[in-house]
Amino acid sequence: MKDKALEKVSILIEALPYIQRFQGRTVVVKLGGSAMSNPACLLEALRDVVFLETVRVRPVLIHGGGKRISERMKAARVAADFVEGLRVTDAKTVRIVREVLAEINGELVDKIEGMGGRARGMLGSDGPLLTVRKHPPVKTAAGETVDVGLVGEVTSVKTEFLRRVFRKSAVPIIAPLGKDGRGRIHNINGDAAAAEVAAALKAEKLVFLTDVEGIVSRSGSGEERQLLSSLNRGDIENLLREGIIGGGMIPKVKAGLRALEKGVKKIHIIDGRLKHSLLLEIFTEKGIGTEIVK
Fold it and tell me: Which end of the chain is more exposed for a tag (fewer CB within 10 A), N or C?
């Protein structure tokens, strides 16, 4: 019993300098993958967020709702089409997206407050917190050019909304929606929204909680895997060119690189399936997952 108690104390002592370093700093967390779809993983991630807020780090949560949105669209007999990872969004789709994201946003607020934390939920289209322009047509791998409809690219973030929430010692929880200059609501890719919010706040860190351990390279036979723990822009560009980074990881690393260029200190891609992965990455010497630095 005594040894276990000493082990717990040693963990706290290891975390102390990191807690001191990051007090008052902003950490933007994008919830995705298993961190959203697995209830146990989600609760662990939110406990980590409450811990951050309690030790006076400033966490901001950005969430999506892809799986639930697709299920709701199917029930409404609305086709779900994706082009290069973007959901093609017409007026009917954007109404469903807004409805589902509002539900999830409220649920996340309730869960954090149920753990003794404070949270303020907001749709990015309210205010609007996020102002957007229409996403340009997307060129597919087959060479086609597709108009993705009411999908937005963030042009500005009203950071004062978020700073008011910080002053109340609460966690902003943001659903990735925005409005254009004509007041039309647009769907926003969650990774891109997280990068723009992190950049606007000059965040210390932008963390993508996913359902993979990080960026992994493979041997020529594909049997041996190696986690790439630290990468820079040049490394990322090489890995993209070689096809080592592919699929759903591409928008994350591209969003991360944009955030770095706009002043975010460090990007982390970590496994949301691992218990307390967020705290392990921020408050321990070795960390986990992949970090991307400028």
Answer: N
How many other CB atoms sit within 10 Å of the CB of residue 1?
Answer: 5
What six digits make up the tokens of 239?
């890995």
* Secondary-structure class of domain 24-241+248-293 per CATH: alpha beta
Taking the C-alpha atoms of residue 251 and residue 196, their distance in angstroms, rounded to an integer, is 13
Q: Which helix (H) or strand (E) element contains residue 213?
A: none
Q: Which amino acid is at 14?
A: E
* Cα(170)–Cα(118) distance, integer angstroms: 5
Find the angle CA(203)-CA(251)-CA(287) to the nearest 5 degrees: 50
Distance between CA atoms of 122 and 128, rounded to whole angstroms?
10
Among the listed residues 25, 21, 3, the one whose alpha carbon sits nearest the alpha carbon of residue 166:
25
**Please, how many CA atoms are within 13 Å of residue 149, restricted to the half-sphere of its CB?**
16
Bridge partner residues of 270 (DSSP):
209
Tens digits of residue pLDDT in 102-148? 999 999 999 999 999 999 999 999 989 999 999 999 887 778 899 99
Helical (H) or strand (E) element with 89: none
34-84 pLDDT, tens digit each: 677 888 889 999 999 999 999 999 999 999 988 899 999 999 999 888 887
Residue for token digits 């999908």?
Answer: 151
Rounded CA separation 109/245 (Å): 34
- Token representation of residue 278: 């967020």
Distances (CA, A) of 168 to 27, 42, 66, 147, 163: 17, 24, 30, 41, 9
Task: Using alpha carbons, list the distances in angstroms from residue 107 to 2, 100, 157, 273.
Answer: 39, 11, 24, 20
Decide: residue 258, CB within 10 A, 0-12 exposed, 13-18 middle, 19+ buried: middle
